[in-house]
Amino acid sequence: MNTPALEHGGPVVEVDGLRVDVVEQGFDIVDEISFQIDAGEVLGLVGESGSGKTTVGLTLMGHTRRGARIARGRILIEGRDILKLRPSELRALRGRTVSYVPQDPASALNPALRIGTQLEETLSAHEFGSSRAERRERLDEMLDEVLLPRDQRFLARYPHQLSGGQQQRVGLAMAFSCRPSVIVLDEPTTGLDVTTQAHVLDTVRDLCSVHRIAALYVSHDLAVVSSLASRVAVMYAGRIVELGPRHELYHAAAHPYARRLIEAIPEISGRHALAGIPGTAPRPGHRSSGCFFTPRCTYAVEQCGREFPPVERVGDDHEVRCYRHDDVLAEATRDRKPAQALGAVAPEEGVIAADRITASYGEREVLHDVSLAVQPQECLALVGESGSGKTTLARCISGLHRDFTGELRLRGEHLAPGARARTLKMRQEIQYVFQSPYGSLNPRRTVGQIVGQPLKLFFDFRRRETEARVLAVLERVAMSPSIADRYPDQLSGGERQRVAIARALVCKPSLLICDEVTSALDVSVQAAIVELLRALQQDMGLTMLFVTHNLPLVRSIAHRVVVMSEGRIVEVGPADRVLDAPEAEYTQKLLANTPTLEAVA
Amino acid sequence: MTTATAPAGPAFISPKQRRPGVVLLLGAWGQARTKIGLGLVILLVGCALIGPLFAPADPTEFVAAPFAEPSADALFGTDNLGRDVLSRFLWGGRSVLSLAILSTLIGVSLGVAIGLVAAYARNVLDDVLMRTMDVILAFPQIVLALVAVATVGPKLWLLVLVVGITTAPRVARVVRGAALDVVERDFVRAAEGIGVSRNKILFGEVLPNVTSPLVVEASLRLTFSIALISALSFLGFGLQPPAADWGLMINENRLGLEIQPWGVVLPVTAIGLLTIGTSLIGDGFSRASIGIQRGARAE
Q1: 8 Å CB contact of A519 and B3
Q2: How far is A474 from chain B (nearest CA, A)?
């Protein structure tokens, strides 16, 4: 095995003062990016969407997305400045010396070619090995390394015949196949179930340490990154604001943003209250002078608005860009608000009762004999991995899925399958908030029209009354009335989800179904939405069915938890009991595989 | 359920703080081709609409000998019967334009309704509707039109109807294709969940989201309708003599093409420029709508 790090000494990857610009407008997407990665080390690059983390990841291959270009800086890979390479040299570098694992393996694999063909192609494209036999041998070795079967039947399959986890393993096999010295992993586990994610992370960790590969792990998920990386860089609005060993970052983050980010991450232990970060990060081209976090920062002083803080060392290998890092560090570490207990719920006849529901999609049965009841003013979490049937159950209740048998009752009254078959009152009482706010709001309607639509349908208000109610409910979800005239694509993801929640709330529902409402959002936004839902639940006595795959989130919001697996309920109980002392084997496995920051600590 | 993430695009385009429809219009206007197309269309529609006011003579009045050369009395000479070519040209645009616009309107309305219903039905109705459309599509538009006119006779209403009906399947295909993707989106589920009626979902939720391809297709269909209507009147199935009509003029004067070409050249140029104009506008919208999709992805 070649150990290039030894050949030139020093770190394998050295990025210095990197800046990437938008070609047309000339403003920067990222700037002043500097970091190093040693052989065998995993550096985590964490940031929320739009922070420029993927842009940085791509530059290690000398690549930028269309419309962007590397404007300044040096990128040394094994001591060679890759920005000075000729196109042919750069092509040879990509895949051979530096390889890349994209976020979505399904779109990275060619759907028309067999897995075996694609894997061999990578090797032959880089002229790995001298003969076909040698490449075949390497292929088998690779499959072993990523824990995929090495038989011909598997290699003859097409990408769509593999599961998401297997597809990502094929992606890993391709990336590791030519024994690169640097690998860039761009959120490779986003979209995978926790169990699959845990396996993929293990594989990456082993391969990087065994083969002494320098890895850059790009992710929005601090918990995932911390389970893998020894050092973590936190990006905000195109700058690295803090870079340090993961333990130090977790216990004593010196940048206010890093701290707030950690506070936004739900913990399984549920010791601390979730706290979102108000406001949004400035987009490229809209960044003012001074520290970009200033408008959202509780530590901000006048100096912060004038000039971007320089890099300062606060420990071995720990750098931060904040004028007030001493004050941030002086505050008791981990001084976080303890979680508030949720109010107790008296057992009563459920608001909604599902009795022996068996649902199918065509021939395929996805729910088998499931029964549950949601108590008034209770938040019931429905937890499970993909394919567990949790969304199907929620859709049956909401009337969006009609193909089921069994009985649904709304306060004792029979609920017909399918929303159209239900009375106006029933439809008004059960409201549904969808997973992705990018799809659930009609892009051709204003926020005011979107929120006003159910009002027009359910209530016979005058126009003034409708408008007043729309504005009132927008205020309830902490949105300014001025957004009523805006279109959804002028709003951020978090704002859109607030609008979707407002559309449900305006109906004064007896049951609010939240289907994975935070999974499309950044953690700091997720925390804010959960805070909002929790406040609504307590202030208005909302009854809620909270569908999620995110176990740590459950304690922050739910009274009781229903754990589902493969269309069946495997465990039901109070949230604290299920998370602290899970009884079902499946729940235990799920908990064990969930990456958490606490595990790092 | 896969974790949905915000759609991230390759380009860095700052989002415009405007209504989507306005963005499309501005995007189309921003292209030279749209401006040229609009200029051509305005010129020729202007000719057709207010041209008769400036006609030096009555279109059916005999002013000189047949196929007379251009002179001070008849700027572009006379036609096969000795009528003023310019006057007949200025009068002759109305029929082509109004028939083409009317039949396109019928075709687009029918096509939109069929396309939306088919896309939303997701059952056997979809197949029945679309296969019926395929049958109509199997015959060239002009053949169906000729069969109809030859059977019933050269009636203007029949012309409009048959061109409209044969236009509908083409619009329906485009609308259905665009709507298939829209009907699967969650805002349609949300509307279903609260019990919004089917028609309101189709025309209130889905239709506004397929306007870009629809505008492009409608202008393309208008181009084809103009050509088709002109062809039919050239063949003698449109307006009947002695009425003035561009298509008819070409037919009447083609015998004298070598002696007095203006009777043919004027209407041919007009029809040609008009179709080029409408298709340039359509092309401008089509390019603008691609830009919109890119912008939406980048957001």
Answers
A1: yes
A2: 18
Q: Which residues contact A432 (CB under 8 A, 6 or more apart)?
A: A394, A395, A398, A400, A504, A513, A515, B190, B193
* Domain ranges across chain A: 352-600
Other CB atoms within a 10 A radius of the CB of residue A462 amount to: 8
pLDDT tens per residue, range A127-136: 777 788 888 8
Instruction: Tell which wins on pLDDT, B104 or A601.
Output: B104
Q: How many CA atoms lie within 13 A of A550 on its CB side?
A: 31
Hey, what are A587's tokens?
Answer: 């729940």
Q: List the 409-438 stretch of A: residues with Cβ below 8 A of B.
A: 419-420, 422, 424, 427-428, 431-432, 434-436, 438
Query: What tokens were used for B11?
Result: 């380009």
| 3-class secondary-structure state, position B245 | coil
User: Distance (Å, rounded) from C-alpha A374 to C-alpha A349?
Assistant: 9
Cα R_g (chain B), whole angstroms? 23
CB atoms within 10 A of CB A541: 11
Spatial contact of A114 and A155, defined as CB atoms under 8 Å apart: yes
| Structural domain boundaries in chain B | 20-298
Work out the percent of chain B whose per-residue pLDDT is above 70: 91
> Which of A453, A459, A550 has the highest number of chain B CBs within 10 A, making it the mutation to test binding with B?
A453
For domain B20-298, the CATH class is mainly alpha
Cis ω before A509 (30° cut-off from 0):
no
Q: Taking CA B145 as the corner, what is the angle to CA B141 and CA B151, rounded to the nearest 5 degrees?
A: 150
pLDDT at A344 over 80: no
pLDDT at A332: 62
CA distance B127 to chain A (A): 19
Tell me what the mean pLDDT of segment A9-31 comes to: 88
- CATH architecture, domain A352-600: 3-Layer(aba) Sandwich (3.40)
Partners of A43 in beta bridges:
A216, A231
Structure tokens at B48: 């057709």
Those residues whose C-beta lies under 8 Å from the C-beta of residue A132, and which sit 6 or more positions away, are none
- Residue B17: list chain A partners with CB under 8 A: 486, 490
CB A119 within 8 A of CB A142: yes
Q: How confident is the model at residue B200 (pLDDT cuts 50, 70, 90)?
A: very high
Cα distances (angstroms) measured from residue B119 to each of B2, B133, B179, B206: 25, 13, 6, 10
pLDDT of A343 > 70? The answer is: no
**∠ Cα A317 A323 A327 (to 5°):** 85
Is B25 a residue whose pLDDT tops 90?
A: no
Measured between beta carbons, the chain B residues lying within 8 angstroms of A398 are 193
Q: Name the band, by pLDDT with cuts 50, 70 and 90, for residue A348.
A: low
pLDDT, greater one: A235 or A166: A235
Judged by phi (left if over 0) then psi (alpha if -120 to 50, else beta), residue A64 lies in beta
B189: nearest CB among A25, A400, A453: A400
User: pTM for this structure?
Assistant: 0.81
Cα first-last separation, chain B: 23
